[in-house]
Design a protein that fits this description.
By secondary structure, the protein is α+β, with helices and mostly antiparallel strands. The chain folds into four domains: 134 residues, no CATH class; 107 residues, OB fold (Dihydrolipoamide Acetyltransferase, E2P), CATH 2.40.50.120; 97 residues; 83 residues, Alpha Horseshoe (Leucine-rich Repeat Variant). It is 52% helix and 11% strand. It has 22 helices and eight strands. The chain has a five-stranded mixed barrel with strand order 3-4-5-7-6. Strands 1-2 form a two-stranded antiparallel sheet. It is globular, with a radius of gyration of 29 Å.
Length: 462
Amino acid sequence: MRRPESSRILLHLLRNSRLERLTRGRGDAGTRQIPASPRRRVPASAAGVLCGLVVFAATLVVPDDGAAAVEAPRLRGLLKQAPLVVAAEVSEVTPYDNGRVAVARLRVNRVLKGTKPAADVMAVEMRDTGTPPIFRAGDYVVGFLRLAGKTTYLAQHLPAGPYYQLVSGRASCLAAPEPESSAEIAKLVGRVAEASGRPGGDPARSAPATRALVFDLIAAPHPVLVEDGAVSLATIPDLAATLTQEEQRRLDVALGRSDLPVSVRLVLIRAVADNGLRQLVPALQRIQSPELLSATLQALAKLGAAPTGDDLRQQLGSTDPQVRIAATQQLVRQEGAEAIPRVSQVALGDADPSVRIAAIEALGETKNPQALKPLERVFADPSWDIRQASARAIHEIGGRQASEAFARLAFDAPPDAQIYAVVLLMTTGVGKDDPLVQRIVQTHPDDSVRHLIEHGLDVHHH
């Protein structure tokens, strides 16, 4: 990770602070004093100031330009990791060490990779309190396994014998409650394993089988397979122009599946948009789930079917906070600076803090100086979560006007937020000789604020 200059300045200021003092006893009248002057008092909320600064510093750390690439479809990765892949019935589960570890007896029906064991597979599962077990007696599973390491703990608590463990925890156990679904899962995993095991060849000859496999995965009963199918849509050339009615039907059904986890449905929605599948616009428009609305609106916009501004403004009146968040974000994406007045109203007045924070972040994403005035008003909110969001948004807009905004807040913000505003000003790259800083040094009525610029946030207690 690389850290921008503004973050390094902020961290330098924090290092100059005696942070541990803020966690100790209060001074008289709920204040903490800076030595050398009996009048230099930092508000009791200084701990909140520093908390805000630490959070703000963390948000300024950005990834390296060479960020990790998106992982390949999960099944192929699991198949590569696992020496043994089996379809099996969990015939019994035996707990040991007061339930901290359990051994599942897997009665193997089919081996999808590796050599079939001579007896039932004994799979070890380490269990955490409050976490649902992975293996349950009576379930049917496709398990991606490797030999369990020979640890002292297992030797002390388990009978002697060979044990296996899942290569990637819960994600590498595809469970189903009945044998028919498990058999379908196993068949599809076997096809993926077969396709993975024969690289090369004539792409033109293998393309129809590969395409059929992708859409069979999308229609599969297990969410991991559906997700892999959605991700693999990108491997089909000219998909939008060649999509068949049956393929469209399968995607339509998958988009409407309420039994799939939200994360998988999000992958499906984005895959439809990324592959330009305008044929699925009606299916996207039928999605009613509030937690999917933001992704759905973005997908519709990408496919040229964005809702109108009036529709989005109407959604801002929804009783569901998630709907208001999605509408706020999409309104800014579509209208840019024109949306600032309406989104500012949400940032200042919505009853739900999560909606306000989403609106504040959306204002920052405009990178438009017109958003600075409402963000300064938001900064006056007594909630530190709201203040931190406002600080991030102002910083994201950036430029001289952001520095000027923080300089104004050093005077106009509530007293317990003025120190915060000064340190934020210094993160914008201004120096001590800058007129904005000198005005604070020369005219600010609070000598603790002036002292901060000269000496850093050096806080003591009595």
